[in-house]
C-alpha cells in the first residue's frame, strides 16, 4: 500500500494540485476509504483524462467494476455504486490504475476479457482478441449450421486454427459446435500456454490439440499431416501492413506481440503461407475463413488467381459491423494434394 | 369411495360458492364469473342462442352449450329424487347430483376457455422495463425495490431473468432498467403489471418525517419470435465506438457499448451491460425487436382493450394501477379494487404478488367474457 501510495503520489500531480481528494490522502488516509465506487470512477477518469490516456472513463469503470466483481460498471448492483470500498479493494484499484497510466491495455490489467460469451484469461504479450473477430466466428458457425449433418464417422467437423493466440476463436467454436474437434497452432510459446490454460478453464481440453508450429517455415504442413485432412481452416493472421506498424497506439506497440500483428510489406506474408498450407490439408470443398485488412480481399483474390495449382477459390467477402470488408471465405475446389483421401488416417485425439 | 365422493361434492360446492377465499384457479370460480352464469343472465341468453340455432361462434361452443343445458336439466330432475322415500334411491340420487355438478363445473370452465380469446403473445417471453417517475431520489429508490421484487418473482416462478440495461442513480436508486424474462406463461402473468405504480411512505432521505408520494412506471413488452417479427438488416444502423479508424488488429479499444437505430421508425436501443460487443449487440437487438413488436401490436390491442379496466400495452402505461402504502402496510390494485396487507412480504415477490396477479387474470377473463357475449353472435 505504501509503495503504491508513493508511486501514485508522484504520478498524480494534477488532482493534488487542484486540492482534490487525493490532496489530503497521505495525512488523512481514512478519508480515502470513504470513497464510493462512483466517486472512484470519476476520480480515476479525471486522472486518465489529464494524462491523455485513451478511453479514460471506460478504463476507470472497467477497473472499479472488476475489483467489485462485475464485468461492467453498468451491470454492477446499485447498492455497490454508493458503498465505499475496503482498503484492499482500493489498493487493487490503485495498482491497476497505475498500470493503465503506463498505457497497459485494460484486458491485460484485468487479466481477463470476454469473447463470444466466454471468459478468457489474457496475459501479455499474447494478442488480445478484437470485437471484429467475434463476427468471424459467427460466420463460421453460420456456414457450419448450413452444412449437411452427415459428415464422417466421428460426426463433427475437424477444424484447424492457425495463430490461436489466447484460444478465443478455437474455444468459442468448440463450445458452440459440440461435435467439433480442433487443432490449434501458434508459433509463440506464450500463446500455446495461454490457449492451454483457457481450454482447461472452460473444460474444453478434450477436443483440442494445441501445437507449437510456425507455418511460415518450409514444409511446416508436413507436421500436421498425421492429424488427417481437415474440414475447415480458420485464422485471424497477422495482417497489418508493415509500414502501418509504427502508427499503432502504445497499448498495442508496447504490450502485444508484434509477430501477431505485422503481416509484412502488404500484410500478406502469413496469409500466403496459410493458403498454401490449407490447400494441402483441406478436404475437397473444405473452407478457409480469414480475418484480413480491408485492402486484402482484392489482393488475396488476385494472388489466388495467379496460383491455380492451389485449387482455392474466393467464395465471399463479408464486411465487419463498421462496414469494412473484413472477412474472406475461400474454398478448395480441386483434388486433394499428394495422396487420395483414404490414405489419410483419421484423427484420434487423446 | 364415500369419502372420495364427499370430497368431490365439497370441492364442487365450494367452487359454486359466491364468496370464499381468493383462489389460485384460473378463470372460473371468482364471484363475477359465477354471476355471469346466473339464470336469465346475459351469458345464459347468449349460450341458449348458441345451443339453439347459432353455431356462430363455432360448432364446439354450440356443442358444449347444449351439453351444459342437458346436464343442468338432468341435475334438476335428479334433485327431485333427493326427497324420495326410498333410502337407496335417495343415496343413488345424491351420488348422481355430485357427479352432475362436477361435470357442470367442467363444462362452464370449458365455455370460458372457448370464449376468452387467448392472446397471440401469451406464450411469448417478454421484456420488463422499469422507469422512475415523479419523486426524485425516492422514486429511484422505489424503482430499485420494484426491480428487486420482479427479480424475486421471476425466481419464484422459475423464469429466466436477464438484465439488458441498467441505469442507476448516484445514490443507489434506479433510473431505468430493462430485463428479458422468459419461461412458462411469463407474459400471460406479467402483462397485468404494466402501468404506473405509486408509493406512499416517509423516504429515507426525509428529515421531517413527512409522507411523500412518488411513482414509477412498468412496461411489459412481449418478445416477438422469429416469425412474429421480421426486420430487414438494411433498416438498421449499428453504432459502435470503433466506427472511425482502421479497426481490426489496428486498434484495441474496450468500449463495447452498442446502439442500434431502426431507421424507418427511429426506434433506438442501446446496451453496454457486457464486455463482449457481440453480446451487447444481441441484447440491444432483443430490446429493439420487443419495442418494434409492441408498436406493431398496439393498434389491434388498443382496439380490443379500449373499454376494459385492465389495459395492456402503451395505453395502460400512463394509468395509475397500484398503490403501495407503507404507513398502512397495504398494497391496493385500483383496477379491481383489491387490497392486500403485509407489504414487506408482498415486495418479496412470492405468494402475495402471485395472488394479486391471479386475481387480475381472473378479472381480465371476466371482462373478456362480458365483451365476447356482448358482441353480436
UniProtKB/TrEMBL annotation, chain A:
SUPFAM superfamilies: S-adenosyl-L-methionine-dependent methyltransferases (SSF53335)
All residue ranges annotated as the Release factor glutamine methyltransferase N-terminal domain in the record: 39-111
Enzyme Commission number: 2.1.1.297
Methyltransferase small domain span: 159-246
Keywords assigned: Methyltransferase, S-adenosyl-L-methionine, Transferase
Recorded GO MF terms: DNA binding; peptide chain release factor N(5)-glutamine methyltransferase activity
Domain of life (superkingdom): Eukaryota
Catalytic activity: L-glutaminyl-[peptide chain release factor] + S-adenosyl-L-methionine = N(5)-methyl-L-glutaminyl-[peptide chain release factor] + S-adenosyl-L-homocysteine + H(+)
GO cellular component, one term: mitochondrion
GO BP field: methylation
InterPro entries: DNA_methylase_N6_adenine_CS, HemK-like, N4/N6-MTase_EcoPI_Mod-like, N5-glutamine_MTase, PrmC_N, SAM-dependent_MTases_sf, Small_mtfrase_dom
PANTHER family registered for this protein in UniProt: HEMK METHYLTRANSFERASE (PTHR18895), MTRF1L RELEASE FACTOR GLUTAMINE METHYLTRANSFERASE (PTHR18895:SF74)
Protein name: peptide chain release factor N(5)-glutamine methyltransferase
Organism: Chrysochloris asiatica
High-level lineage: Eukaryota, Metazoa, Chordata, Craniata, Vertebrata
From TrEMBL, chain B:
Subcellular localization: Mitochondrion
InterPro entries: PCRF (IPR005139), Pep_chain_release_fac_I (IPR000352), Pep_chain_release_fac_I_sf (IPR045853), Prokaryotic/Mito_RF (IPR050057)
Major place of residence: mitochondrion
Keywords: Coiled coil, Methylation, Mitochondrion, Protein biosynthesis, Signal, Transit peptide
Boundaries of every Prokaryotic-type class I peptide chain release factors domain copy: 242-258
Record has Transit peptide as a keyword: yes
Superkingdom, natural source: Eukaryota
GO biological process, one term: mitochondrial translational termination
GO molecular function ontology, one term from the record: translation release factor activity, codon specific
Coiled-coil features, chain-numbered ranges: 61-110
GO CC annotation terms, alphabetical: mitochondrion
Signal peptide as annotated in the record: 1-17
Annotated family: Belongs to the prokaryotic/mitochondrial release factor family.
Role summary: Mitochondrial peptide chain release factor that directs the termination of translation in response to the peptide chain termination codons UAA and UAG.
Name of this protein: Peptide chain release factor 1-like, mitochondrial
Originating gene: MTRF1L
Amino acid at each position: 500500500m505504501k509503495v503504491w501510495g508513493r508511486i501514485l503520489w508522484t504520478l498524480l500531480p494534477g488532482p493534488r494540485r487542484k486540492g482534490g481528494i487525493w490532496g489530503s490522502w497521505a495525512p488523512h488516509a481514512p478519508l480515502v476509504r470513504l470513497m464510493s465506487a462512483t466517486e472512484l470512477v470519476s476520480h480515476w477518469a479525471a486522472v486518465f483524462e489529464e494524462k491523455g490516456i485513451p478511453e479514460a472513463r471506460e478504463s476507470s469503470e472497467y477497473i472499479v467494476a472488476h475489483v467489485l466483481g462485475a464485468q461492467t460498471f453498468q451491470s454492477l448492483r446499485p447498492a455497490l455504486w454508493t458503498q465505499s470500498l475496503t482498503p484492499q479493494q482500493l489498493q487493487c484499484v490503485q495498482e491497476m490504475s497505475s498500470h493503465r497510466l503506463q498505457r497497459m491495455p485494460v484486458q491485460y490489467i484485468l487479466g481477463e476479457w470476454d469473447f463470444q460469451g466466454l471468459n478468457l484469461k489474457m496475459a501479455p504479450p499474447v494478442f488480445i482478441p478484437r470485437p471484429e473477430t467475434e463476427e468471424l466466428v459467427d460466420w463460421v458457425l453460420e456456414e457450419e449450421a448450413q452444412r449437411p449433418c452427415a459428415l464422417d464417422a466421428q460426426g463433427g467437423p475437424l477444424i484447424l486454427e492457425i495463430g490461436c493466440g489466447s484460444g478465443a476463436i478455437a474455444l468459442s467454436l468448440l463450445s458452440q459446435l459440440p461435435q467439433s474437434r480442433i487443432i490449434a497452432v501458434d508459433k509463440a510459446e506464450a500463446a500455446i500456454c495461454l490457449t492451454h490454460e483457457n481450454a482447461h478453464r472452460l473444460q474444453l481440453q478434450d477436443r483440442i490439440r494445441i501445437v507449437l508450429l510456425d507455418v511460415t517455415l518450409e514444409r511446416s504442413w508436413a507436421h500436421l499431416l498425421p492429424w488427417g485432412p481437415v474440414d475447415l481452416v480458420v485464422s485471424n493472421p497477422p495482417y497489418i501492413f508493415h509500414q502501418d506498424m509504427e502508427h499503432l497506439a502504445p497499448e498495442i506497440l508496447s504490450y502485444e506481440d508484434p509477430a501477431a500483428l505485422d503481416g509484412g510489406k502488404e500484410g500478406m506474408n502469413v496469409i500466403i503461407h496459410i493458403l498454401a498450407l490449407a490447400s494441402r490439408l483441406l478436404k475437397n470443398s473444405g473452407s478457409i475463413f480469414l480475418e484480413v485488412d480491408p485492402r486484402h480481399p482484392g489482393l488475396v483474390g488476385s494472388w489466388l488467381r495467379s496460383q491455380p495449382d492451389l485449387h482455392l477459390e474466393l467464395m465471399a467477402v463479408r464486411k465487419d459491423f463498421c462496414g469494412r470488408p473484413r472477412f474472406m471465405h475461400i474454398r478448395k475446389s480441386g483434388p486433394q494434394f499428394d495422396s487420395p483421401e483414404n490414405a489419410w488416417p483419421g484423427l484420434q485425439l487423446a | 369411495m364415500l369419502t372420495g365422493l364427499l370430497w368431490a361434492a365439497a370441492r364442487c360446492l365450494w367452487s359454486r360458492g359466491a364468496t370464499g377465499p381468493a383462489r389460485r384457479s384460473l378463470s372460473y370460480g371468482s364471484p363475477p364469473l359465477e354471476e355471469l352464469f346466473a339464470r336469465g343472465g346475459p351469458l345464459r341468453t347468449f349460450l341458449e342462442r348458441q345451443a339453439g340455432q347459432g353455431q356462430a361462434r363455432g360448432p364446439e361452443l354450440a356443442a358444449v352449450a347444449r351439453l351444459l343445458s342437458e346436464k343442468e336439466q338432468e341435475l334438476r330432475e335428479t334433485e327431485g329424487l333427493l326427497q324420495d322415500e326410498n333410502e337407496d334411491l335417495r343415496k343413488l340420487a345424491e351420488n348422481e347430483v355430485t357427479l352432475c355438478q362436477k361435470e357442470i363445473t367442467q363444462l362452464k370452465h370449458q365455455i370460458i376457455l372457448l370464449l376468452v380469446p387467448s392472446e397471440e403473445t401469451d406464450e411469448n417471453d417478454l421484456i420488463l422495463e422499469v422507469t422512475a417517475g415523479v419523486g426524485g431520489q425516492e422514486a429511484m429508490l422505489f424503482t430499485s425495490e420494484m426491480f428487486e421484487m420482479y427479480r424475486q418473482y421471476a425466481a419464484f416462478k422459475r423464469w429466466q431473468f436477464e438484465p439488458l440495461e441498467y441505469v442507476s442513480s448516484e445514490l443507489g436508486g434506479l433510473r431505468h432498467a430493462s430485463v428479458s424474462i422468459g419461461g412458462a406463461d411469463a407474459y400471460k402473468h406479467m402483462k397485468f403489471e404494466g402501468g404506473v405504480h405509486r408509493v406512499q411512505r416517509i423516504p429515507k432521505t426525509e428529515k421531517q418525517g413527512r409522507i411523500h408520494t412518488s411513482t414509477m412506471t412498468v412496461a411489459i413488452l412481449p418478445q416477438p419470435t422469429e416469425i412474429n417479427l421480421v426486420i430487414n438488416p438494411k433498416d438498421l444502423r449499428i453504432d459502435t465506438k470503433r466506427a472511425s479508424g482502421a479497426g481490426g488488429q489496428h486498434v484495441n479499444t474496450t468500449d463495447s457499448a452498442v446502439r442500434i437505430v431502426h431507421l424507418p421508425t427511429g426506434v433506438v436501443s442501446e446496451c453496454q451491460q457486457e464486455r463482449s460487443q457481440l453480446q451487447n449487440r444481441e441484447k440491444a437487438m432483443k430490446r429493439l425487436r420487443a419495442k418494434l413488436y409492441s408498436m406493431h401490436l398496439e393498434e389491434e390491442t388498443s382496439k380490443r382493450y379500449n373499454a376494459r379496466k385492465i389495459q395492456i400495452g402503451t395505453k395502460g402505461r400512463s394509468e395509475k394501477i397500484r398503490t403501495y402504502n407503507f404507513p398502512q402496510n397495504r398494497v391496493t390494485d385500483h383496477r379491481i379494487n383489491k387490497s392486500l396487507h403485509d407489504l414487506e412480504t408482498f415486495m418479496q415477490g412470492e405468494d402475495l404478488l402471485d395472488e394479486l396477479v391471479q386475481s387480475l387474470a381472473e378479472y381480465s377473463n371476466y371482462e373478456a367474457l362480458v365483451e365476447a357475449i356482448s358482441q353480436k353472435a
